[in-house]
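Progress report, Aim 2. The chain analyzed during this reporting quarter is listed below.
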Amino acid sequence: MGLKRKILDKTTSFFSGSFILKRRLDRFLWFFIYLFVLIVLFISWNLYIESRLVKIEKNSAIIKDLEINRQQRALELVSLDYNIKVEKMLQDFGSKLHAPTDQHIRVKGE
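Predicted structure tokens for the chain:
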């Protein structure tokens, strides 16, 4: 019974706050408050940095998609420009060739 009583007394004194007064830890109250504030700031700063990194990763994925889209459009524009140049060269040389206007027809073999 004595051991159980000691354990019960120590836990109740710890949770009631009398543990601090018995050990004269109230002298360090400002230090404990300072440590608590530092820990809270450290945790909040880490969470802030992590959220920023998540945003950066999402934005970099979007940038990659947009870069691919831009390259595809640039390639289409280059090919259109090349087709126009070829048509103009053919007209300058007096050729009767022009871009097809009919639908494509598949030729079947026998």
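The CA atoms of residues 17 and 23 lie 10 Å apart. The two ends are 105 Å apart (CA to CA). These observations will guide the mutagenesis work planned for the next reporting period.
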